[in-house]
Fold:
Amino acid sequence: FAALDFYTKLRLEDEFWNIVQKKKKSAILVTHDIDEAIAISHRILIMGNSPDGIVKEFEIDFGTQDRSPDLLRGHPKFADYFNSIWSELKEKTKNG
Structure:
């Protein structure tokens, strides 16, 4: 959703989330956008360079049934998740 204006991006994230939940399916989303990953994921995997595979896994739990990606951005845990993931990415980049 990177090439969209912010409002449209939020609407599409919400629509994506609703479709996945309604169909009761799992989905894999590849993104470089930490906010987007947190807002529409239950689990985030940080990938390393080949052949590293998965470097770190984050379980995303806001403790609420209302998982609207738009509303979650205002949740108190959102910044904590963002900072943890950003720290891991900075460390991974620093260590090559």
Remarks:
- The first helix runs from residue 6 to 23.
